[in-house]
Amino acid sequence: MNFIGSFVSGFILGAGASVPIGPINILIINEALVSYRNAFLLGLGAMCADITYLTLIFFGIFAHINEHSAIFRVLSFLGGTFLIYLAYKIFRSRVIDSAKLKTQIYFASPFKSYSKGYILTILNPYTILFWTSMLAYIGQNNLQFGFTLIGLICAIILWISLMPFFVYKTKSFFNQKVGVYVNILSSLIIFGFGISILIRLLITMSTFK
Is the full-model pTM beyond 0.90? Predict the structure, then answer.
């Protein structure tokens, strides 16, 4: 019966990792206003990055990483910079005419959306710390890693399927003016996440002796 408990625990962990509002969910919402497929693929890329880190940590890589380690600082700088860049791109695209919108839907690159989610998550240094703590939880509660991972994946796939689907199906309620406001708000939130990572990096570097 331990496999059932492991699956349920993994599902809860997956929900806890995917549901809170963060840069990935903001980007998924933003993408879903244009294309459900791209929004889903962005979330799928983020999930694959989570699984990448979770697997590497499980095999002992990144076992001793902390906020003062060199790799954490590099990821903090790259991740924060990438978020600011994405915020700039979103802000620039805040005004889109209907013809351009149709072109974007038809010709948008699935690989680009997937890569955006994967790169953003893999460059987030706090992803490592989060999954390190989750693996500690799995070990302390004698959960089976395989079934826990399956439960986690199921929860994340459910979220990245249903959440953007709901946004996409209700996008008709958003006129162009509202869409502009959504893009501006999204860019400000993403920018705030990026700046907060860089500020925290500076604080840890200045206080570390």
Answer: no
